[in-house]
Amino acid sequence: MRRALSVLRPPPELTISDWADRNRRLSSEASAEPGQWRTSRAEYQRGIMEAISDPGTETVVIMSSAQVGKTEILNNAAGYHIDQDPAPIMVVMPTERDAETWSKDRFSPMARDTPCLAGKIADPKSRDGTNKILHKRFPGGHLTIVGANAPSGLASRPIRLLMCDEVDRYPFSAGAEGDPVNLARKRTVTFWNRKIVLVSTPTNKGASRIEAAFEESDQRQFWVPCPDCNAEQILTWTQVRWDKGDDGAHRPETARYHCIECEAAWRDETRWAAVSRGRWIANRPFARAAGFHLNEIYSPWVRLEAMVRSFLSARAGGDEAMKTFVNTALGETWMETGEAPDWQRLADRREAWSPGTVPECGLFLTAGADVQKDRIEVDVWAWGRGLESWLVDHLVLEGGPGDPACWQQLTDLLARTWTHASGQPMVLARLAIDTGYETSAVYAWSRRVGFAQVAPVKGVEGFTRTSPVTGPTYVDATVAGKRLRRGARLWTVATSTFKAETYRFLRQDRPTREEQAAGAQCPPGTIHLPEWADGEWLKQLTAEQLVTVRTKRGFARLEWQKLRERNEALDTRVYARAAAWILGADRWPETRWADLETQLGVAKSDGPEAGAATAPSIQTRPTPRRRTVRSSYMG
Predict the structure, then answer these.
(1) Widest pairwise Cα distance in the chain
(2) How many CB atoms are located within 10 Å of the residue 238 CB?
C-alpha cells in the first residue's frame, strides 16, 4: 500500500537550478568539465534558470556573448520539464542541420548520463518510434526539435515550453510563412502557463531579433562587487587594461580588470570570485518578460589574456573581424561602417539661417522630391566648392500624385526663387524626383514640364562609386501600355553610394564656430543643417544603417536597413545629390566654380577644385514649356 501511495506523492518543489545541482551530469563529449553540474560554477546562470522556473514570467530573453553557458541553460530547462513538469516542448535551432546536431551532440548525451532521465526517454535503438532524432516522447509530453527554416515544423503542434536558440541566425522568413519566431510563438497561445525562452548572441543594431526582444524586457544586468571597495558595477570592456613593452608592443598577459571606483586591478581568479558574489538588477519594471545581458568578462571559462588577444587580432582584421568580436565576445550589437550618426549630435551642430535663404558659399541649388501616397516632400539643397552643402528649404506639398493641385505646386516650384546671401535670386538648377511610387504619374508630369530642369530617377541597390548615376534612358508608356519612342528620360541612381557618402560627410570632424570665425575652413563635403530642421527631420535623415547580410548560398552582401519607418529626409537628400551629379558638379573645373562666384558676387573661396561640366544658370527663368511638333502624317 505504501509503495502504491508513493506514486501519488507530488514531486519536490525545485527550480531548474536546484534540479540541475541534484541530477544533471555533464557528459565528456559535450563538456570540458564532465561530472556533476554545479550552478555555483557560473553563478549568473542561477537567476536565469529561476526566471524560467517562475510561473509569473512568460518570456525569458538572454542576449549574451559566447562562452557563458547559455546552451546548457536550455539543456537544463528541457531536462527539468521532462523529469519534473512534463509538457510539450519545442526547441528551435537556426536550421534543420543545427537541430540534428543539438539533438545528437547535446541532448542525447545529457539524457543518457543523467540518471533521472534515462528511464523516461526510450532507447534510441528501439523500434517503437518514440525516440527519433527530432522528436522524442516521454510520459506526459514530447520534445520536438526543428529548424527555423522549416515552416511545417514550426506550425505542426501546440507547445507549452518554447526555446529558441540563436534567433539572430534565423532566416528572415520561414519559407513564405513569415518570421520564424512569431510562427513558433503562435504554437503556445493555448497554454495559460506557456513559457518562451529566446537566446542569442546579437548581430547588427536595428536588425537584431534578440536586441529587440531584450529592449521589451526588464533589461537585467549582472552587478559585481569589488573585492577591495565593495562597489557594485557592471563589467565592461573599457575597464580591461593591459601594458605595453618598451618597444610599444602589446602584452596581453598583463591584462587585468580595473574597478570603476577604486581602480583595483583584478586578476582572473579575483574576477571569477567577484562574479560569484554578483546579483541581477533590472533596469526597467517587470512586465512578465525577464531579460538578461552578459559578456565574456563574466565567464569563468575565459581569461582576459585570451580576450585581449582576440581584440587585437580583430582590430587588425578590419570591420568584419571587429563585428565578430563585438557580437560574440561583448554580446553587443554592431553598427556597420555605414552607421547613422546620432541625430541629437546633429541637432547640437545646427547653424543659424532662415528658411529659403542661401548661405554665401552656396553656389547652385538642387532639390530632391519623394512622392508619397498623400503628399510630395521636397528638400532644397545649396551646393558649394568641394560639394559642401546647406539645407535651404523643406516643403510638403499636400495632396499626393492623384491631386492635380499637388503637381501644380511642384511645377510652380521650378520657377520659384531663393535669395542668396548676396541678394541675388536663384532658381533650381535641377530637381530629381523618385519614380518608385505612381511611376506613370511622375513620368507624365516630367514630360509636361520638360527635362531641362527635371530628372526622374530610379534607385537601385548596390555600390557604384565610379559612376553612381547612369542614364538617361527613354522609358515611358501610354495609358494603354504602349512604349513611347521618346518617353521620359530616366536616370538610375545607386542609392547606397550616396547614402554612405552622406553619413560619412555627417560624421566627419569640423572646426568649431570660433575656429570658423577665425578663418578655418570646413572639410570638403561638410553638410550644414539649419536650426529650423526639427528633430523629426533629423531622425528621418539618420533613419537607415548599412548591415552585412548573408545570402542563401552563404555569401555576404551589404544592405541598407531602416532603423525607423520614415526616411523621407534621407531619400530627398540622395535625390538632390544625384541631381548635383547629373549637373556635373563632381567634375567641374576651377573656372566653372569661379564663374558661379562671379555671377553671385561672392569672393573666391579657397575650396578644392572639382571636375568639368556646364554651370547651371543662376538667374530666374520662366517655367519651361514642352516643345510641340505637329505631324502631317495622315493629314
Answers:
(1) 113
(2) 7
Find where cell 549630435 sits: 345
pLDDT per position as a tens digit, 22-32: 999 888 876 77
Pairwise CA distance, residues 362 & 429, whole Å: 13
Q: Compute the 3-state secondary structure of the chain and give helix, strand, coil in percent, each to the nearest 5.
A: 35, 25, 45
Cα(325)–Cα(297) distance, rounded to whole angstroms?
13
Its sign, for the CA torsion 282, 288, 293, 298, is: positive
pTM: predicted TM-score of the whole model, two decimal places: 0.60
Q: Count of CB atoms within 10 A of residue 25's CB?
A: 18
Distances (CA, A) of 81 to 57, 461, 493: 16, 48, 56
Residue 90 pLDDT more than 90? yes
Amino acid 35: pLDDT: 86
Contacts with 425 (C-beta within 8 Å, 6 or more apart), sequence order = 417, 418, 419, 619, 620
Nearest CA to 44 out of 23, 73, 66 is that of 73
Euclidean distance between CA atoms 548 and 546, whole angstroms = 7
What is the rounded CA–CA span in Å between residue 382 and residue 576? 9
Question: How far is the C-alpha of 297 from the C-alpha of 315, rounded, in Å?
Answer: 18
- Cα–Cα distance for residue pair 449/604, rounded to 1 Å: 35
Give Cα 297 distance to the centre of its chain: 25
CA dihedral of residues 562, 565, 568, 573 (deg, nearest 10): -20
Residue 626 has pLDDT above 60, yes or no: no
Please tell me the distance from the alpha carbon of residue 3 to that of residue 8, in angstroms, as a whole number.
10
Per-residue pLDDT tens digits for 95-114: 889 999 999 988 988 888 88
> Domains, the chain, ranges and CATH?
14-228+279-302 (3.40.50.300), 351-533+571-600 (no CATH)
**Distance separating alpha carbons of residues 22 and 365, to the nearest angstrom:** 75
Mean pLDDT of 305-327: 87
Classify residue 399 as exposed, middle or buried by CB count within 10 Å of its CB (0-12, 13-18, 19+).
middle
The C-alpha cell at 420 is: 542668396
Q: What is the pLDDT of residue 571?
A: 93
**What one-character DSSP code corresponds to residue 56?**
T
The span from the CA of 274 to the CA of 235, in Å, is 11
Strand partners, 289: 59
CB-based contact 381:355 (threshold 8 Å): no
DSSP string, 312-380: HHHHHH-HHHHHHHHHHTS---B--TTPPPPHHHHHHT-B---TTEE-TT--EEEEEEEE-SSEEEEEE
- For 146, the 3-state DSSP assignment is strand
